[in-house]
Amino acid sequence: xxxxxxxxxxxxxxxxxxxxxxxxxxxxxxxxxxxxxxxxxxxxxxxxxxxxxxxxxxxxxxxxxxxxxxxxxxxxxxxxxxxxx
Length: 85
Description:
By secondary structure, this protein is mostly helical. It has one domain. It has 4 helices and no strands. The radius of gyration is 17 Å and the shape is elongated. The termini are far apart.
């Protein structure tokens, strides 16, 4: 199934590509994107999982170490890690 052949904007059912990615997640749920963005910029509270990851990493990361947050969202994990370290 090719994404460009589908009407993703009007589809209510999730369209999953061959890699398991939901191609129309944000088309169907604008609130989802807003929640992620608001968390990333500090407008909404941190997720508990972000707090837990930051707490775990604080014990493992030394003062001059660098952390690479490779993700696919808006950076809410990065915000929590930066805040803790």
